[in-house]
C-alpha cells in the first residue's frame, strides 16, 4: 500500500487527507445524531408532567437546556412565558421557531463539509490521474520505448482515480443517510414543539 501511495505521487495526499476528514465527520455525526442526543425519550411527556406537578418554571428551563438538541427549543417557549406572561400565541411560536432553526442548524453541522468531500474526491482523483499521465508521456521518448513501464505507469496513475472514488462513494452515502436522519429529527422536533405550544396555551386559559 505504501509503495502505491509513493508511486501515485503528490496528488494522492489531498485524497488521503479527505479520507481522514470524512471518517472523522462520519463518526462525529454518527454520535451526535443519535436519538438520545437529539430528543431524549419521553422528554416532552416528562416536561408536561413536571409542569402539572407545579415544578418551578426556572428549574424546568434549566433541565431542558441540558436535554439534547430538543430541550432548548421547549425551554424557549417556557422562557418566553416566564419573561412575558401576557405573550401572545404568535410571540410564543416565534420564540420556539427561532430556537428550532438554531437546533436544525446544529443538526446539520459538518454535513456541508461531508458533501464537499463527496463532490471533490473524484475530481482530485482525476487530477492525480492527469498529472500522472503527463509525467508518464513526458518521460516517454522514442529511445526509451518500454511498453511494460508505460503500462505500469498508467496503472499507477489510475490508482488516483480509484482512490478518489473509494473516498467519494462512502462519503456520499453517509451524507445522504445523515441528511435523511436530520430531516426526520427536524420533523419530530416540529411536532413536539407544536404539542408543547398548545399545552402552554391551555395553561394560560
| N/C terminus separation | 71 Å
Strand residue percentage: under 5%
What structural category arises from helix and sheet content? mainly alpha
Give me the strand/helix succession: HHHHHHHHH
Q: Please give the oligomerization state of what you see.
A: single chain
Quote the average pLDDT: 85
Shape: rod-shaped
Overall domain count? 1
What is the percent of helical residues? over 70%
* Rg for CA atoms: 27 Å
Low-confidence blocks of residues: none
Biggest sheet, open or closed, and with what strands and sense?
Answer: none
Question: How many distinct helices?
Answer: 9
How many individual β-strands?
0
What does this structure look like?
The protein is mostly helical and 205 residues long. The chain has one domain. Helix content is 82%, strand content 0%. The longest helix is centred in the last third of the chain and has 57 residues, at 147-203. The termini are far apart. The mean pLDDT is 85.
What are the SSEs and their pairings?
Elements: H1 2-8, H2 12-32, H3 35-38, H4 43-52, H5 57-65, H6 71-83, H7 89-107, H8 111-139, H9 147-203
Helix pairs in contact: 2-8, 2-9, 5-6, 6-7, 6-9, 7-9, 8-9
Give a quick rundown of the structure.
With 205 residues, the chain is mostly helical. The chain has 9 helices and no strands.
Features:
single chain; 205 residues; mainly alpha; 82% helix; rod-shaped
